[in-house]
Amino acid sequence: MPLTVGEERRSSNHFKVLFDFAPMGILMTNSLGDIIAINPFALKEFGYKEDEIIHQKIEALIPSRLHSQHNNYRELYFKDPHIRTIGITEDLCGLRKDGSEFPVEISLGYYADKGEKYIIAFICNISERKKSRRDIKGLHDNLEATVTHRTELLTNTMRELNINKEELSRALEKEKELNELKSRFVSMASHEFRTPLSTVLSSAYLIRQYDTAEGQIAREKHLFRIVSSVDMLTEILNDFLSLGKMEEGKIQIKLSEFNINEFITSIIKEIKGNLKLHQQIVFHHQGEDNMMMDASLFKHILMNLISNASKFSPDSGLIEINSHLDQATYVLSVKDSGMGISREDQKHLMERFYRGSNVAHIHGTGLGLHIISKYAELLNGVVTCTSELEKGSEFLVTFKLNKNEKGEDIID
């Protein structure tokens, strides 16, 4: 059925709103390359007022070195117009009024009206994406340099000591492991950085659209998403820093005496705000109260285990923490009712960058359990796991304690 006049007017208004408030640049040209429409986002991106750029050639927004190439592309496109995206594999740049350039990705569409063909271009500034790629490449290059340096040291050591065939084989196996770790690191970093960076970028774009008092709730929602994404990136970087300190032997044990019951209770209060909706923590302690331990490392171990229990459990899930201290040992248990871990994955849980086969969709670096297992070793402890798929997991951290001359707990 044909639309009524009122329906056509409403439909036209809807399209105008989409055009004016779209969080990306949109412009339309005719077959001669004249700009006949451009939205506010594109005007701001390129630095023009509408009356300065309307009816100008599209080449005004393209660096001069690309004009000839663009003219050829336009002629070919009008001969066979179709929806396509450019700027993914090749480098494209937009030209601002002030002469500065910025990288773009462009999606092209077309339509015909009364025998005239028009091109619609959707323009996305990919400066942040390019920066992310450069940052990741920098990480890759640094890791490559580290591997190369270690390879040189290894080769020199083999030459100087004239090591036997068996030792050489072990060294080459270690080198293979380093290369595998490099690949896993680059893959993990690329994936884990992309999601929060994309969230920050999209939320920043959307915040600009809510510039009225009525938009306060929407602004706060997107600001919360930005803060959460930055927290996620901080968590990833902290894991990298902790791993680096351990590998360089820079972790120092600082023992102090504290009440284990009160200490764990304070940690639970601190982390409660980060739990999923309606998740609960139940804590029980048995035995003696005071213990000598590195409080900072112990807190990192417990918070990581609670965070994992929350992350891999459903909303309203129960997290049980049990603690037992006697003269010889201290045992910490964190149990959840989450998705569980397969037997095969349990064999590799403490390895660097290893992630279970059923958690690919959940944020994580694959470093948390590796780090806490190393922290536990420094405190004369060991981490073990008991788990069954779809029935949850229990992590036990067991510390062996000795008594000093005053009868106080000490770490071996």
From TrEMBL:
Enzyme Commission code: 2.7.13.3
Residues covered by the Histidine kinase domain: 188-403
MF (Gene Ontology): phosphorelay sensor kinase activity
Record carries keyword Signal: no
Keywords: Coiled coil, Kinase, Phosphoprotein, Transferase, Two-component regulatory system
Pfam families hit by this protein: HATPase_c, HisKA, PAS_9
InterPro entries membership: HATPase_C_sf, HATPase_dom, His_kinase_dom, HisK_dim/P_dom, HisK_dim/P_sf, PAS, PAS-like_dom_sf, Sensor_HK_Regulatory
Domain PAS: 11-54
Domain of life according to the entry: Bacteria
Reaction it catalyzes: ATP + protein L-histidine = ADP + protein N-phospho-L-histidine
Coiled coil (UniProt feature): 151-184
Name the record gives this protein: histidine kinase
Organism: Candidatus Opimibacter skivensis
Lineage: Bacteria, Pseudomonadati, Bacteroidota, Saprospiria, Saprospirales
